[in-house]
Here is the input.
Amino acid sequence: MNTSVKSGGLWNDNKRWLLGFILLVAVTCAFFDRINVAVLFTDKEFLSTFGLVGQPAKAGLLMSAFLLAYGISSTFISFVGDSKFGARKTFITITVAWSVLMILMGMPTSFMLLIVLRIILGVSEGPQFSISAKLVSRWFPKHEHARANALWAVGSPIGAAIGFPFVVYLDATFGWRSTFYVLGAITLLIVLPLILKFVHDQPEPRLGVSQKEIDYINASDPNAVTDSQNATGPSASFVRDLNFWLVTLCFVCYLGLIWGFNSWLPSYFKIARHLDVRDMGFFSSLSFFMMFLGEILGSSFSDWLGRRAIVMFAAQLLMAVALGLALISSNDMFSVFAIVVSLFFLGCTVPTSFALLLRILPKSTSSTGFGVCNGIGNIASSAVPFLVGLSVKESGSYNVGFSILVILAVIGALSMVPILARRRGL
Here is the structure.
């Protein structure tokens, strides 16, 4: 393994990590946009405005509609990152769309109009993760893929950890409409300029990337030149790979878990575990901070071990155990802390699954393949917020609704068993 750059520690030979940081900022701010309605599910004025009082299943549709559109978009639009249009132009286009849509969502008083805007937001955000993975495949050597993907993937838990208390504050201080206006302005005034300045399709000397770093990035990937030459005509051969579909199944379960938590965790803490508004915001934030910690430690361990599937299996299984203990406990604080622990194990899954995907997919189809996986995952998991809300309504118990999440974690763990049994070093 070429370690010249890794051991040199010189900023001029590590520009790729700046790109990773910009992707982190973009994902973090995009996640603000995705979870703000979960906080508003506890706002009486918001619920009254859109006729959602006493209608948890209907409220869940706001998240499910977004996710369905997000998944379809990810599946059918992510190929643009592999086309001549490229990752940079796609990223710029969708970022402009996010900011405008968030501002518009602060204006309507019709539930149907809000649903429509949430659907369009899902379409515009759909390609983001696949574009980020595509950029990692171009800017980082393979043995850094888990950590590089973790760097931007932690934007999801960071976005939730910061976003929940931030949106709680905006809502309590300025009203629910301000949450949309402020988040839209952040994307337009902070995220977009950073993307314009620092996000490019591949590392080149004209961007200030040293030849030493470019050689380091390509040294561990003998197919780098060939893939680059073939990037305009990607093959869909990955659809015949069983490993791809097993990882996709695990990703479906992961996304069902994350969207179940993003949609209903504040309500669970407030209603099922009797936390006040301040504690609700704190423990929601702490849960997603632990997920962030899990992504950092899990990705580092995965890169060190070099085996992705075993990490994903163990993390999902431990997640199921912790969440199951939380639901059966009669002690509110034990339950809260068990959920916090479960989010740590959930965090170990995502960057490791990205690294496993990038090992399975050819570089020339990384955006397309990742988009298909992410898209199917979001389409399949889009029903989870609605199903949790419906279960809560029918049973009168959040523990019954959250039992759906335990089942998803178990299925996610079992999906890795065939890969482990085949012993192919994945």
Remarks:
- Residues 1-10, 222-235 have pLDDT under 50 and may be disordered.
